[in-house]
Specification:
heterodimer; A: mainly beta; seven-stranded mixed sheet; 0% helix; B: six-stranded mixed sheet; five-stranded antiparallel sheet; globular
């Protein structure tokens, strides 16, 4: 599992509230990613990071921001949550013995 | 960006039979093609991957084939078992920067 944890694992919030999801890794991997997973759409990249303070947008970045102040932590923020952001969010890292991508356990977010 | 088409979207096979899932891509080159398995409520987990310098790779009942000329790669599962029931995702590293593009997934059901 490449030592990836996500918090919280479940969250219910209301439209218009800010939400921050945290991803923490213990493997010192350089690359980190945030995906959302919705039925019929597979895994879609929101933002990714290729180093501390180095981030870039993915294919569905509108309404999301990220920050990476330490190698081990990658934060995803929804500044003002909307119902369309109800989803399962996965964090991932790239590296390790297999030189491949590993996923965290996921966060189920519901925006009412 | 690169699109990865994955077929079929659903697949049901009798226990003991083989299952084949195919992915095609169009424009970009990739040197790395992983396959992930996701059980209900769990994270995607790598089951096998292939790099562009080989045409086939096997790991027990699972094999992946790659045809770079035709731009398609396939997952083959032989002697299927009930625990093979899951959603399978193909992916490719089309941008060469450890950023994977995923197919939309195949829901495989093994009928006992």
């Amino acid at each position: 599992d490449a030592g990836i944890t996500q918090s919280p694992r479940h969250k219910v919030t209301e439209t218009g509230t800010p939400v921050t999801l945290r991803c923490h890794q213990t493997e010192n991997h350089r690359y980190m990613y945030w995906y959302r997973q919705d039925p019929g759409h597979g895994l879609r990249l929101i933002h990714y990071s290729y180093g501390v303070k180095d981030t870039d947008k993915g294919e569905v970045s509108d309404g999301y921001s990220v920050s990476r102040s330490k190698t081990e932590d990658f934060l995803l923020t929804l500044e003002s949550a909307t119902s369309s952001q109800t989803s399962v969010y996965f964090c991932a890292t790239f590296g390790g013995e297999g030189d491949t991508q590993y996923f965290g356990p996921g966060t189920r977010l519901t925006v009412l | 960006g690169e699109n990865v088409e994955q077929h079929p979207s659903t697949l049901s096979v009798q226990e003991g039979d083989s299952a084949v899932i195919k992915c095609t891509y169009s424009d970009s080159a990739s040197n790395y093609f992983p396959w992930y398995k996701q059980e209900l409520g769990k994270r995607p987990q790598l089951i096998i991957d292939i790099r562009s310098n080989v045409g086939e790779k096997k790991d027990q009942r699972i094999a992946v084939t790659l045809n770079k000329t035709a731009k398609h790669f396939s997952l083959h599962i032989t002697e299927t078992q009930p625990e093979d029931s899951a959603v399978y995702f193909c992916a490719g590293d089309f941008f060469g920067n450890e950023k994977l593009t995923f197919g939309t997934g195949t829901r495989l059901t093994i009928i006992p």
